[in-house]
Amino acid sequence: MYLETPSQQAPRKAKILMLHGTGQSAHTFQTKMRYLHDPIARAVFATSSITHEYLYPGVVEFVYLDGPIPASEIDACDESYMKPNRLPDSWLWGYGDPETSELKGLEHTWKHLAIVLNEHGPFVGVIGFSAGAAWSVILTALLEQNNKMNPHFQVKHPPMQFCIAFSAFMFEHQTYEWIYSRKIQTPVMHFIAALDTWVTERQSLKLVDQCANAQVEYFQGSHYIPRGPQIKELVTKFIRKTTGWALERDQVDPEWIDV
Fold this sequence. Notes:
It comes from Aspergillus homomorphus (strain CBS 101889). Keywords: Hydrolase. The chain is an alpha/beta fold. 32% of the residues lie in helices and 17% in strands. The strands form 2 sheets. The protein has a 7-stranded mixed sheet with strand order 1-3-2-6-7-8-9, with helices on both faces. Strand 8 (188-193), helix 5 (201-208) and strand 9 form a beta-alpha-beta unit.
């Protein structure tokens, strides 16, 4: 796990969980997302100063997490869909075809994420790319449901205030229907690449349909994290809107404040 900690002074932090894509790592994702740190932090502070200053007086901590499965351990014959590279710092959340099959290795991911939520939370939001985005939406859904169906995923954590998903997709095999059994109420921002051939528009829009408060943004590009002033502005406005929405949805229990 890679932790990005801007400051050691403030006693309370707004933590955001960051989940990389297939065959990547916490470090590589941090490199791609660093340009959004300041806009996100300013958005959280702007909302906090108006509505809930007692929660986030000045620190946003971005918690970058490695997937639990080393890509180097996956046998080539098993890589039916997700074909990670063989770099030393290359990790997976699972492998297989998310459109047609049960994914392998998910028992490790469930346990891994549960430990992080229980021991390093609470988190106000989650941001992910590709497979990490798929898991970001899954976490958002399950924390709303307080679902007890998975013995590997037993957590005590409040619902996320927001989710940002770059090139996300659903796990479409019937095994995972329980995950999407209810419409996701937490606001989710979906970025969809117009030229993406790795995660298709159909896959992303199928997941969008499961989100009651979805915001969909297209960009002209392929399977990567978009950059530019417009992306910063969209993310900033979304964070400001959703953190205020979360406080209207439910009062934050002091038990969940990180000190």
